Amino acid sequence: MCWSLKELIAPEPVQKQPVVAWGSAGSGGKEGAEAISAPFPCEDPECTASFCGDLPTATASSSLRSPLLPCKREASILSGYRGSPSAFLSKIPDLRSEGWTSSQENRPDVYEKLGTPQGLWTGGEMANPVPSACCVVLAVVVVVYAQRHSQLESHTQYERVGADVTMKCGSMDWDAAVTWTANGTDIDESHLNGSYLVLKNVDLSQSGQYSCYEGSSWHLKYQTNLRVGMPPKEPVLMCRSNNYPKGFYCSWHLPTPTYIPNSFNISVIHGTKDMVCEKDAVPKNRCHIRYLQLFSTVKYKVTLTVTNPLGKNFTTLTFDEFAIVKPDPPESVVAKPVPNNPRRLEVSWQNPSSWPDPESFPLKFFLRYRPLILDQWQHVELSDGTSHTITDAYAGKEYIIQVAAKDNDIGTWSDWSVAVHATPWTEEPKHLTTEAQITETTSASTSSFMAPPTTKICDKGAVVGSGAMAVCWTAGLVVAAYSVLFI
């Protein structure tokens, strides 16, 4: 059988019992014994749990139940200690700093450190008297936590933006001395009315954890998580069939945020029959319904209700089967120029992949296009096919092109496809020279290859001196005069 914690810390020797108990300082363990009682998780002689390593898990309940206890071979030095747990904790660092371990035999020195009389053992039975220090620390920490927190409950308080908020310090009297904190920061006493905390005209920034402590002892008496938000406005609900005739889906959202958690509930009624709206994992605010009957003239009624801690709201849609048919946009839109045609663009696309049966439920298409330099669109409606040739494009101008789809007979047009860009074909420029460049080139060519004259009027190489130069010029003048007479 294992030792009980009551045996380890009670001021008087007691008989061993299979319970876990620890009262507040001075209670002699009675208070703890009444509040906490549980059989140990291990029993002698096979009690082999290691309380400094592999710790058993405490049972969670309104009162703390802890299995952090040594077996009979490990009695505790706490057996005669009469101080409070917090006082004991303050002495542990002194022991550990001196390298004290459970194997030390200098027990009187340990007792002197703790202020505990030696030789006082529980149950009138001697066992291994000194446990390891880590076991003692763990046991004390658990008990201190139980004393401080076992009576606290988790609270969440929701308040509307702009409201005045009053918080009570648990069961404390109005005139009790208390201290309030918000997210760990002290709140000025000007916000207190006795022990009550009063917050005027709260806003979103005042959301957080508020704690109340008793007087100067700083014992935590109350704690709450304040969430400031808004009640929901009427939600926006939309239902659409993009995979006709399989079914339709409904999606929703709130027009403005509430800043606190909201829950949505949707109901679908077809005539007098309730239908199941299966919620999608992604996106989360969407569900889908399968058609149970095609070509029905009975209307569908969809009601969406949104609720949060500050209020609720709802909206309702009523429609027939054909009105909500709206395909997804066409896919894989491609536009490219037509060779040797400067005013044409070839456009092609594919049916939306979500449309399940284009053979039985064919789609028609709407094409729009414009040059980037203009704002006005040109439109073409196509009853069949998934391609079209634009024949009136401006040569050399970049165009933007989009396509939409619709069931041939029912529903509405889809959204526009992703825009594509294309520029009509243009002839590549040839490297031609101008007429002036051609004339200049021809003249230069002729002069460079012109044959020298066969008759020389004056040969400088055959004449020497300045006199010869004079004779040369004279002969030239005579020839010129003779030529004039014969003209």
Structural class based on helices, strands and sheet pairing: alpha+beta
Give the helices and strands as they follow along the chain: HHHHHEEEEEEEEEEEEEEEEEEEEEEEHH
Major sheet characteristics: 5 strands, mixed
> Mean of the pLDDT scores?
73
What does this structure look like?
- There is one protein chain.
- By secondary structure, this protein is α+β, with helices and mostly antiparallel strands.
- The strands form 6 sheets. A 5-stranded mixed β-sheet has the order 1-8-7-3-4, with no helix packed on it. Strands 9-10-14-13 form a 4-stranded antiparallel β-sheet, with no helix packed on it.
- The protein is elongated, with a radius of gyration of 50 Å.
Short recap of the structure:
By secondary structure, the chain is an alpha+beta fold. It is 17% helix and 28% strand.
Descriptive tags:
single chain; 487 residues; alpha+beta; five-stranded mixed β-sheet; four-stranded antiparallel β-sheet; 28% strand; elongated
Outline the secondary-structure elements.
Layout: H1 5-9, H2 30-35, H3 85-97, H4 107-114, H5 133-149, E1 156-160, E2 165-167, E3 178-182, E4 185-186, E5 192-193, E6 196-199, E7 208-214, E8 219-229, E9 236-240, E10 247-253, E11 263-270, E12 273-275, E13 278-279, E14 286-290, E15 300-308, E16 311-319, E17 331-338, E18 341-350, E19 363-371, E20 378-382, E21 387-390, E22 399-407, E23 420-422, H6 435-448, H7 466-485
